[in-house]
Structure formats: C-alpha cells, structure tokens
Amino acid sequence: MTTTTISRRSALAAALAVPALARPAFAQAAWHATRPVRVVVPFPPGGATDMLARLIATGLGEKLGQALVIENRPGANGVVATQNLLGSPPDGHSLMLATADTHTVLPAANSRLPYNVAEFVPVSGIASVVFALVARPGLPVENLQQLIELARGSATPLTYASYGVASVSHAAGEMFRRAIGAEMTHVPYQGAGPGVLAITADQVDIMMVPVAVAQPQRARLKMLGVATAQRFSLVPDVATLTEQGMPVIADAWIGLLAAPRTPMVVAETVHAAVSQVQNTPSFQDTLRTNGFSSLGYNPAVFAAFLRAEAERWGQVVRDANIRVDG
C-alpha cells in the first residue's frame, strides 16, 4: 500500500469521524438572510466552478428567501476572490465557492498569501472534481502498465501537462510521477482546455485532467484511468488507477466558505438550505454529467475534511517543491 492511499484514507477518516452537527429544520433557523446573498466565484464565467455556482443559485435563493447574486472575480489563482470575501462582513450575505486549487494547493505552494485560508468558515462541502489520466494518441502505450514501463525506461523524460503551476492538475501530475518513480517534465498551460488540446495534438505526453474536460475528446486521446477511489459513472468503462495497481487519488473538492468570524449558526443554516437543493435527483444528475462526485458535507465534517486535505495535498506540494511567490 502506498503513502498516497494511506493519506487519502486518513483524510476521509478524519473528516467522517467528526459527529455531524444537528441540522435544524429550516423553519427553526435562528438566522435569516435579509438582503441578496453574494456568491463569489474565483474563475471567469463559463467554467465548471461557475456552472456549479449557478446551479446551486437556482434553488438556494428560494430556500434562503433572498436572491443569490453570482460575482465572478477571477485573478491570481483565487487570490482576488478570496480577498474580496475577506473584506466582507461576516454576516452570511457573502460566500465564496472555493476549490482545492484556490484554498488547498495554492496555499501550500505560496507562503506569502495575504490571508490565512484556515480562518475562513467552512459552510458546505458540495462536490469533488473527478480527474483522469490521459495520454496523447501517438504515445506508444495502450494501458497504464505500458505507460509506467515507458516512463521508467525512457532516455528522455516524458512530459506531463497541467492547467497551471500550483494547480491541482500540477500537484496530481507530481503525485503520479512520484508514485511510479519516474522523471517527467512539467508543461503548464493556461487552463484545462488548452492542456487537453495539446494532448490531442501530440504536443505533450500525459495529463491529469478533469474527466468532464477529457471526455468530449475521447476519440482523440487515450484515457488510461480515473484518479478516484471508485469508478466514475460518467466513464464506467475506465478503470481506476487503484484497480490497476497504482493507488493515486486526485479528486479535488469544491465547497462554500464564509468570511472569517461568521457565526456557526449562519454556516449551519446555509448548509441546510444547500442540502435541500443538492439532494434532488436533477442536481445529482447534473453533477455526474459534468464530472463531479457529490460530497454533501456539513460545516463540521467539511472543516475536518479541509484540514485533512491540506495535509494530504500539502505533502505532495512539499515533496515536489512546487512553489509560487508573490
């Protein structure tokens, strides 16, 4: 059993061992939104995180009794959006749809961030992005074992793409590289789409990429495995890396955070409303078809999960010496 497997299981055990907070019936909630609620998204419109924010907003505003306003504030790998939330009153009327990229991997790689991510209040762990390992069509491999043998035996290191330095894609690539014990060269791109296009054009060898981005290009690349604990229903024919003897787990969380010092009753109330939206067949089906697996963590479980994920991904970042300054 590899360190990757042990750390992932420890992360989940730490999160799920925390007793779930009592979820008050919505009519008994001690906090109510009194004006429109902002949800800050750290990426431009049109991406997966933005889509998820708008999907939640469709029903969440009704549950909270106020309109939900999506504000896209891209920039600096989530720093712009996070600073915006940091400067907002801790009253529940400003939230952020944060990700493992912005609030787990980046903080591990950049010690000079102008905030401490641990101070933000976990509200609701909503979903995980499922990642797949893909290879360019011209690479002379047809399965994971052949890729491992090629990577270990190649005189010239293989290249692996990512959708940015200090991203989950970058850290997941390093996680895989270290797990198989081979040298590889990192090639960052400005987004998952450009990275996958480079794969399909035979410009880079492999990539750890969200399944939803790779799936439309299945005819033009080789999907060698999914980096999650169980097979994913969007691509049920693709075995997990674990099934194939390489237990690398690289799914990446997405969830709601509130400003530091936001009262717990606010987090509990918002999560209760999110749950009502999330626990519907249509929401779950939309998650799956867009490459997400469902989490549904309440504030206490989400807080423990985030601490464990910080340690899990932080170890990868430290071992690989992934660094971003400024």
From TrEMBL:
It comes from the Bacteria. Keywords: Signal. InterPro entries: BUG, Bug_dom1, TAT_signal. The keyword Metal-binding does not apply. It holds the Pfam family TctC. Residues 1-29 form the signal peptide. The keyword Cell division does not apply. Belongs to the UPF0065 (bug) family. This is Tripartite tricarboxylate transporter substrate binding protein. It comes from Roseomonas alba.
